[in-house]
Amino acid sequence: MTTPAIRTVEELEERLSRPSAADVAAAGRLDGDIGIIGATGKMGPSLARRVKRASDEAGSQRRVVAVARRFDPTAARDLTGAGIELVECDCLDRGAVDRLPPLANVLYLIGRKFGTAGRTDLTWAVNTLAAAHVAARFRESRLVVFSSGNLYGMVPVSSGGSRERDEPAPTGDYAQSCLGRERVVEYFSRERGTRCLLFRLNYAVDLRYGVLVDVGRRVFAGEPIDLRVGYANVIWQGDANSYAFRSLELAESPARILNVTGPETIRVRDLAEWFGRRFGRAPRFEGCESEAALLSDASACHAALGAPEVGLEMAREWAAAWIESGGPSLGKPTRYEVADGRY
C-alpha cells in the first residue's frame, strides 16, 4: 500500500474533496457559476467542496452554490466555512425552483432509492418531477444529471457490463423512475437545446458506505455474505466526484449518456475471501451465485476523462483499515445483492 490509511472523518472528507490536476484545469476552462443541487446526502458535500477547491486553485472568482431542501447545522457550517453559498429549496415546488439564482453549470444529485417499496409515489415524484422543474429552470445551462446503472437491468457477467448504447431494461420502481428522470431531461435537451449529460453511476464507495464496506463489515462481524448477486462494479467516491465535475464539459444536446464506475468486475466471493485473509477470519456465505448482475462498462468514461486515481486495491485496503479501527458507518447499505428491484 503506497498511501497511508485514512483514519478520521476529517481526513476522509479532505481526501474526497481534494481536486486533481484535471479538476483544476477544468475549473479554469469553465465559464460561469456552478450549482450543486442535492448538496446533502452521501456525495453532495464533498462534491461541492471539490468544485470550490478546484475553482479557487484555478484562480476563478465564480460562485459555488449548494442547493438542498434543508441543511443541518453541521453541514451548513462546513459548507459555508469552505466559501460555498447555501440555498434551501424544495425542488418538488416549481415556484421555489424558479426562484433559484442563475447558474451556468448545474450538477444535479437529487434522487430517492431506499424506502421506494413503501412510497412508490414519492420515489416517482422525487426522481422525475423535481428533475423536470430543474431542467425547465436551467434550460440555458449545462446540466450533469446523476442517474444509475440499475436502469440497464441484470446482464450476464461474461458480457463485461452494459454499454451506453444498450437499451434500458429497468426492474422495479426505483430503476424505472431513474429512467423516467432521464426521459424528462432528454425532453428538455431535445426540445430546448439544453446541454446535458446523464451520469449513470454504480457503485460509489467511501469508507462509510459502499459495496466494499458492506462486504468487509459483514466478514469482520462474522455475518453471512449474500451471493444472490455475486458480482459488482465500484468506484472511489473521490473519482466519481471528479468525473461528475469534469462531465460538465461533455454536456451536449441531445443529452449524452456516460457510464461511471471502475474498470473491474468484482466477484463478491473473491472480495469476501480477501477481507477474510486480511482480518484473519473465514467468511460465511449464503445464497446461490448467479451469473447475472447489475454491471456497467465504463470504458467510454475512462477514455474521455482518464482512469480513476484510486484503484480497487487501494480502496479495499483503506476500507479494511477503517473497519478494523472502528471507523463510523453511515448505516446506508448499497443493497447490491437485490435482484428484484425492491428497495
Oligomer: single chain
User: Unreliable stretches, pLDDT < 50, 5 or more residues?
Assistant: none
Termini distance?
A: 36 Å
Radius of gyration: 19 Å
Q: So what's the CATH class?
A: Alpha Beta
CATH superfamily: NAD(P)-binding Rossmann-like Domain
Strands ordered across the widest β-sheet: 3-2-1-4-5-7-12
SS content category: alpha/beta
Look at the structure and give the mean pLDDT: 95
- By CATH, the architecture is named 3-Layer(aba) Sandwich
Number of helices: 12
Shape: globular
How many structural units, i.e. domains? 1
Specify the helix fraction band.
Answer: 40-55%
Largest sheet: 7 strands, parallel
Strand content: 15-25%
CATH topology: Rossmann fold
Number of strands: 15
Structure described in brief:
The chain is of the alpha/beta class.
Q: How is this structure best described in words?
A:
It is a single chain. The protein is α/β, with parallel strands linked by helices and 343 residues long. It has one domain: 3-Layer(aba) Sandwich (Rossmann fold), CATH 3.40.50.720. The chain is 40% helix and 16% strand. It is built from twelve helices and 15 strands. The chain has a seven-stranded parallel β-sheet with strand order 3-2-1-4-5-7-12, sandwiched between helices. Strands 6-15 form a two-stranded antiparallel sheet. It has a two-stranded parallel sheet with strand order 8-11. Helix 4 (73-81) links the parallel strand 2 and strand 3 (85-88). Helix 6 packs parallel to helix 7. The radius of gyration is 19 Å and the shape is globular. The protein starts with 8 loop residues before the first helix and ends in a 19-residue tail after the last helix. 48% of the residues are buried.
